[in-house]
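Q: Please design a sequence for this.
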């Protein structure tokens, strides 16, 4: 993180938070958030029983073989990871318009007042 820029909010919608090791990314985000700043992210729910880093093909079953890794955790595990990296006021939810559909994990957390 070669910047001194501080942000009021950082968000990831099916993006960086899902595809980057949180043990590497969260320590980079925390000091870049203003005191009380908010981190918000969303991605698909984890498959029950399959947690942590998971390899996937970037283009599904079509196109060239391009491996990507995503990190999938339960809402409670995400809350623990965020607490460990200095976040507070953590809210995690699994939402879907239809209970039969794949749910989206929605997470909001604040940086520690006074900085990380």
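A: Design:
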């Amino acid at each position: 993180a070669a910047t001194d820029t501080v942000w009021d909010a950082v968000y990831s919608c099916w993006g960086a938070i899902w595809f980057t090791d949180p043990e590497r990314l969260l320590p980079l985000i925390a000091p870049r958030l203003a005191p009380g700043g908010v981190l918000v992210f969303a991605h698909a729910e984890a498959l029950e029983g399959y947690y942590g880093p998971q390899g996937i093909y970037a283009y599904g079953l079509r196109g060239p073989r391009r491996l990507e890794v995503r990190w999938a955790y339960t809402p409670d595990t995400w809350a623990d990871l965020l607490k460990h990296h200095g976040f507070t006021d953590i809210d995690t939810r699994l939402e879907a318009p239809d209970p039969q559909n794949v749910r989206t994990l929605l997470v909001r957390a604040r940086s520690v007042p006074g900085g990380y």
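Q: Thanks. Anything notable?
A: The chain has a mean pLDDT of 91. The chain has one domain: 7-111.
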